[in-house]
Amino acid sequence: MKSPRTVLIVDDEEKIVEVMQTYLEKDGYQVLGAYDGTTALRLWKENDVSLILLDLMLPDIMGEQICQMIRLNSRVPIIMLTARTEETDLIKGLQMGADDYIYKPFSPRAVVAKVGAVLRRTESDELISMPVSYKQGKLVIDFDNMSVTVRGEKAGLTPTEFKILMTMAKAPNRTFTREQLITYALDDDFDGYDRSIDTYIKGIRAKIEEDRKDPSYILTVHGLGYKFAGEKE
Fold first, then answer.
1. Band (95; pLDDT cuts 50, 70, 90)
2. Do 63 and 147 fall within a single domain?
3. Which GO terms describe its biological process (predicted)?
């Protein structure tokens, strides 16, 4: 039997932690709670955490800093909990490695649904092995063999272009900042500026889109980055 997934809730408001723990445990999750950043980092290191719900405003370490510290060693999904609604705060959090945002005040049921959606997305990313087709086979991505065909013809993507496309295609409709694409897709292979990602995206679009000026697969999310909008068949 598969063991329950563990969610770490980090918030200095004890009531929020208690309420969310109740709802998540009812949905079958194991839950750890922390009211400050120091405890959160210790619990994350000591346990097999599947996802982190992380408040931005903590008494000792800011949530963005915790996210940044965790991202140095792990890609565990992180959902930020925040009362801030400024776009600059959202961009900053995404740049530091957050996977998603939930704005306060929130419905506990909505948070549970978001946790399930993010976990399904990240877990399905790891299971993709067979070639995946989009738009009745017009685009086929073979993740194992690192190949892409468009209307039956090899697309001719470079290794770097393929890594970027693969990263986005494995998490459809998730917005990636340029910094995240460098971190997740290129790692130590990349030696350039974040705006170089725009050039790679342009190259990918030229090879897979029917109309690169009106793309249907790789969409621009203005002010944030890019996302892959193809639906698997």
1. low
2. no
3. regulation of DNA-templated transcription
